[in-house]
Specification:
The complex is a heterodimer.
Chain A lengths: L2 H12 L3 E2 L2 H10 L2 H5 L2 H15 L20 E2 L10 H9 L9 H15 L4 H8 L2 H9 L19 H4 L2 H14 L8 H35 L3 H16 L8 H18 L11 H15 L4 H16 L8 H6 L8 E5 L11 H13 L5 E6 L5 H12 L6 E4 H10 L4 H5 L2 E3 L3 E3 L4 E10 L2 H7 L3 E2 L4 E2 L13 H33 L3 H6 L3 H4 L10 E9 L1 H17 L5 H9 L6 H9 L9 H18 L9 E5 L5 H7 L28 H9 L13 E4 L7 H16 L4 E6 L2 H9 L8 E3 L4 E3 L5 H9 L2 E2 L3
Helix pairs in contact in A: 1-15, 2-4, 4-11, 7-22, 10-11, 11-12, 13-15, 15-17, 17-18, 18-31, 21-22, 22-28, 25-28
Chain B lengths: L3 E11 L7 E6 L20 E4 L11 E4 L1 E4 H9 L2 H7 L2 E6 L6 H13 L3 E6 L5 H6 L6 E5 L5 H8 L4 H10 L6 E7 L7 H12 L4 E8 L5 H6 L14 H12 L4 E4 L2
Parallel strand pairs in B: 2-6, 6-7, 7-8, 8-9, 9-10, 10-11
Antiparallel strand pairs in B: 1-2, 1-5, 3-4
The chains are: A alpha/beta, B alpha/beta.
Chain lengths: ~775, ~260
């Protein structure tokens, strides 16, 4: 790492997240203007975007090579009152909460009280959403049956394709002009809507160009004042880059990185979409620029690494937008899930690993930053050297990169009806979500609490936490004659709540499509321009909605325990079991011990449990897959939790697998913490018994003790474990390489372990920033040793 | 086939018991009583109860039963589960213990069945068995990990409970008969870490026709908790692992005879 990158990195790490009121003020100013009142919805959104970029402070830091900040300075985080308006109490919580705080100064509070809150009250998307939800939906939401992703953030969940690197904004404007010219008012009853949408995209494209020019002007002024001739030269070079891109297509490595970065900040300034934005297949996009310049002698490896380092820091400067309430609990992290994809295959299916792939892996290892997240796509066609290199970074113990199965992702996307070339140019974004990069709007709609339904099934649809009849009366559990009857009741609870969730989703998608278009993001994703339709309204080539199942392991083990002890062995009566659960096992310690130790558990390659796993998966799949969404696409399943397994666990009492009330659920498709006792091959064998190819992503976390990976043999064999899992169509696997002693020590002395990074779910986080419940959950995960 | 064998543990993703990713099957029962034994719960031939805690919890407290009979088809089905990882890594199954040669018919049936299924087999043995078992059973393994502990017969008897003449003779019998043999030498401080002793062993091994590698396994006090749980005397209590430098210094004596030396197997 060069001294410059060391300094930039240190400054980024030292900067504290703060709330910036700048965007809220500019947005409100604009919405109060006559221009806003007179414009159509999409044009109003585009003009708001333009107004913000024209007036926001330009920040160019010392030593920087890549420029552009969302806030007035690094980690100064804007708010999005048109989506979700923070109350003064929310601001207080953000400022003072012990984990994931954002500092809020008095000016911000005052401006919120005087200007932001009075204007936006009753105008937000959040309020609109809740006002359209049924009582059933609200009751289920409050009980923790599911969460709602769009209550505080806008849809997004997408990654850029290569278009960003091939076309400038000026080229996109020409495409838009052409589309406007082709509008057929004679026959197309939506021609006016398309016209307004295209005009909005055009305004947004020009707004980004103008914002880049503002940077160029500032850089030129800085160059004039600069006394160091070397830095002056750099500033002038950067100014030239900003005058050229993103207006025109990039031609150099530096220009390509700067282009993406302007686009990235554009997306996260327009709104606060989930997962920020994502360059997707970064090694593929950058390779032509890299190769051309290396051959021409205008770029060295070292310079490329320095530019990449500067680029990495920009991601780390941008914490996730502030999240509170349930959204805060389901995704309790500063990480905003931009996930760099490396490796995989190209559009024609050939091995895509190149020398830049390895160079970027070096950068990931050296930078050791939370953001951006990173992953490798491993195809059967990729060389072992590639996975070995990635695992050597994993060994350093910061949970990155995660490892994805390219061949599975391609099959998942093709099964969903996508073109195979589009599938091969896709990958995984966010935590583990498969998508056709640059061409798909794949919206995550919320987490779904599979385990809570076991509790409802045991109580005839009543939620024992509140005494409320939440679900349908599916029968007294004591009356079920066999496990099939019990499972069928669980399945009916599932169908009931999935139906509620999907009705809500489709209303919310229409709300976002109608009231909160994203003309800038729509520029980037095919075929929004060609269709003259917004990203949020079905303009993309592919439109998918996901419901993310949580607690697969806990649900499987709970149902397996009922099957094994109550119905198969007859060793426990259901009434006794219910009494024990109601008492949280107080006075039932021996029963709990049997449930924990004398019951088949998922994660051990034990068919007695894994058969139930398959039934749970198939029921969930059948309930969700193929149900229409409101954007011309359908719903699909995926299985990941972020931090929601902790929240969902907190709303469930004791479960028949021996889990005590309030404890976190299992995470992703990982086994219940501590239940897997036969080593990692048994875990991945169990995990492969669901059909990953019919999901849009699964998440498997494994913890290894550092000594397992101490030598190259350990690395090689871990690579073979991964290859084995992927031969069985596993979607994803990731590793924590850390021992429990280290984590305990970090709990006792957080001040000495500020830099300890662990894998949580589909992302890494600083261990000391995690809630105590999540810290405990990670410590309890089984660690595989080699003794 | 209805033959049963007594097995006390099946370890998957075993990384140090032969090539690739392996499933190691620990046979219960051993004719030796090595002071440094890492698996004291595998010494007796019958199932036994081992308390779950090290502080000698009362009778009837939580305990696990160590060892149970397995049929050959049942055990082979368990081994087959990780087939995909053997294929991926060039791995297979390892029969260890206890002493696998102490259940020769069971081991023989397993070796035959694995060969039929193209699963690579390794046997990790003390070599203490009748010579015909060495010739007719052990030689069927694709790889033999053959323990040598001490060249001095009296000391061998003291520290393992049996003399070493049969073990050395069996190794000579096996030499040339088994497809591949690797010697495993547990380096135990105060027992077999004298240079003279090691020179003698190196000379003996170097005289074998087909043995070219020796794995030097430094003693580790890892089993202390198990001794306490089993309420057995740990005669190595307080003994520490040799350092890497000490191990390498002694390993060099093996290497001097032209043997390949690996540390930790």
């Amino acid at each position: 790492m060069t001294p410059r990158i060391q300094r930039l990195r240190r400054r980024s790490l030292d900067a504290q997240p703060r709330i910036s009121v700048e965007r809220a003020v500019l947005l409100t100013d604009f919405y109060q203007s006559a221009a806003a009142r007179n414009a159509s919805v999409p044009v109003r959104r585009a003009l708001a975007f333009k107004h913000i970029l024209e007036n926001k402070a330009i920040w160019i830091g010392e030593d920087e090579l890549i420029v552009g900040e969302r806030g007035p300075a690094p980690k100064e985080t804007p708010t999005y009152p048109e989506i979700c308006l923070h109350s003064l109490a929310d601001l207080e919580i953000l400022d003072s909460r012990p984990k994931i705080p954002y500092a809020v100064d008095n000016d911000t509070r005052r401006i919120y009280a005087e200007k932001i809150i009075p204007f936006w009250q009753n105008r937000t998307i959040r309020e609109r959403i809740f006002s359209h939800m049924t009582e059933d939906w609200l009751a289920a939401y409050q009980a923790g049956i599911f969460t709602e992703f769009q209550e505080q953030r806008s849809p997004g969940h997408t990654a850029g394709g290569d278009k960003i690197f091939r076309l400038g904004m000026a080229d996109l404007r020409l495409q838009i002009a052409e589309q406007i010219h082709k509008l057929d008012f004679a026959c197309d009853s939506h021609a006016l809507e398309r016209f307004e949408q295209l005009r909005a995209m055009d305004i947004a494209a020009q707004a980004l160009i103008d914002w880049a020019v503002r940077h160029a002007e500032r850089l030129e002024a800085m160059a004039t004042a600069e006394t160091d001739p070397a830095r002056r030269g750099e500033l002038l070079e950067m100014a030239a880059v900003c005058r050229k891109v993103p207006a025109r297509a990039p031609e150099t490595f530096h220009e390509a990185l700067q282009t993406y970065w302007f686009v990235h900040v554009g997306v996260i300034t327009e709104l606060n979409p989930w997962d920020a934005f994502n360059p997707g297949r970064l090694d593929q996009h950058l390779y032509p620029f890299y190769r051309r310049e290396i051959e021409a002698g205008t770029l060295t490896e070292d310079r490329a690494k320095e530019l990449l380092g500067a680029f990495w820091i920009k991601f780390n400067n941008h914490p996730a937008p502030p999240k509170t309430g349930v959204t805060g609990q389901e995704s309790n992290t500063y990480t905003d899930f931009a996930l760099i994809n490396l490796g995989g295959v190209d559009r024609n299916g050939a091995d895509a690993v190149n020398e830049l792939t390895y160079l970027i892996l070096d950068v990931i290892e050296e930078m050791r930053l939370l953001q951006p997240s990173s992953m490798v796509q491993l195809s059967k066609k990729n060389p072992d050297r590639f996975i070995h290199r990635a695992l050597k970074i994993v060994r350093t113990g910061f949970g990155q990169p995660s490892v994805f199965n390219t061949d599975a992702i391609v099959q998942e996307l093709v099964r969903q009806g996508k073109d195979i070339g589009d599938a091969r140019e896709g990958g995984a974004s966010g935590c583990v979500e498969a998508g056709a990069f640059g061409r798909e709007a794949y919206i995550l709609t919320g987490y779904f609490n599979l385990a809570k339904l076991v509790e409802l099934t045991l109580n005839n649809g009543m939620d024992p936490r509140t005494g409320r009849q939440l679900g349908p009366a599916t029968g007294r559990a004591e009356d079920f004659v066999d496990f099939a009857a019990f499972f069928d009741a669980w399945r009916r609870q599932l169908a009931h709540f999935i139906d509620i969730k999907i009705r809500g989703n489709n209303a919310i998608e229409q709300i976002n499509g109608r009231y909160m278009p994203v003309p800038f993001l729509s520029l980037l994703i095919d075929d929004c321009i060609a269709n003259g339709r917004d990203y949020n309204a079905g303009g993309a080539r592919y439109n998918t909605s996901y419901i993310q199942g949580v607690g697969l392991g806990s649900t499987t083990d709970a149902l397996t325990a009922v099957r094994h002890h109550v119905f198969d062995q007859g060793t426990v009566r259901l009434t006794e079991l219910k009494q024990a659960l109601a008492a949280d096992f107080e006075g039932f310690e021996d029963l709990r011990r049997r449930l924990l130790n004398e019951t088949p558990k998922y994660g051990n390659d034990d068919e007695a449990a894994d058969a139930v796993l398959r039934e749970v998966f198939e029921a969930y799949y059948a309930a969700v897959n193929g149900r229409p969404n409101a954007r011309g696409g359908v719903h699909r399943v995926n299985l990941l939790p972020t931090t929601c397994h902790v929240y969902f666990g907190s709303v469930i009492g004791a479960l028949p697998d021996g889990r005590k009330a309030g404890q976190p659920l299992s995470e992703g498709i990982s086994p219940v913490q501590g239940a897997d006792r036969n080593g990692p091959t048994a875990v991945v064998r169990s995990a492969s018994k669901i059909d990953h190819l019919r999901t849009g992503g699964t998440l498997l976390n494994q913890k290894f003790l550092p000594q397992v990976l101490a030598d190259d043999t350990g690395i090689r064999k871990l690579g073979q474990l991964v290859r084995g899992y992927f031969r069985m169509d596993g979607h994803h696997i990731q590793f924590n390489v850390v021992d429990a002693d280290t984590l305990r020590e970090a709990q006792r002395h957080p001040e000495n372990h500020r830099d300890l990074i662990v894998r949580v779910a589909g992302y890494s986080d600083y261990f000391v920033d995690l809630t105590p419940a999540l810290q405990e959950e990670i410590i309890r995960r089984t660690a595989h040793d080699d003794v | 086939m209805t033959m049963d064998g007594m097995v006390f543990r099946i370890k998957k993703y075993a990384l140090h018991d032969g090539p690739g990713i392996r499933t190691t099957v620990f046979f219960k029962g051993c004719p030796l009583r090595c002071w440094w034994c890492h698996n004291p719960e595998g010494q007796g031939f019958e199932p036994e109860s081992m308390p779950l805690t090290t502080d000698g919890n009362p009778v009837g407290g939580p305990a696990e039963i160590i060892g149970r009979p397995w049929t050959v088809p049942e055990l082979v089905a368990e081994i087959e589960k990780d087939r995909i990882f053997y294929d991926e890594s060039g791995g297979g199954t390892t029969f260890s213990g206890g002493e696998p040669l102490a259940q020769p018919e069971f081991l023989d049936a397993l070796l035959e069945e694995c060969r039929r299924r193209e699963i690579h087999t390794t046997v990790d043995t003390s070599g203490y068995a009748p010579p015909e078992v060495i010739r007719t059973v052990l030689a069927k393994a694709d790889l033999v990990l053959y323990d040598l502990k001490l060249m001095d017969d009296a000391r061998h008897r003291r520290y393992t409970g049996v003399g070493n003449q049969r073990i050395l003779a069996n190794l000579e019998t096996l030499d040339g008969r088994a497809p591949r043999i690797v010697i495993r030498f547990p380096l135990v401080p105060g027992v077999n870490d004298e240079e003279d002793e090691i020179r003698r062993m190196a000379q003996f091994v170097a005289g074998l026709k087909t043995v070219h590698r020796i794995d030097l396994l430094p003693f580790h006090p890892i089993a202390d908790g198990k001794y306490r749980r089993m309420k057995m005397e740990n005669r190595m209590a307080g003994v520490k692992s040799p350092t890497r430098r000490e191990a390498e210094k002694l390993g060099a004596l093996f290497a001097a005879t032209g043997l390949e030396v690996r540390y930790g197997g």
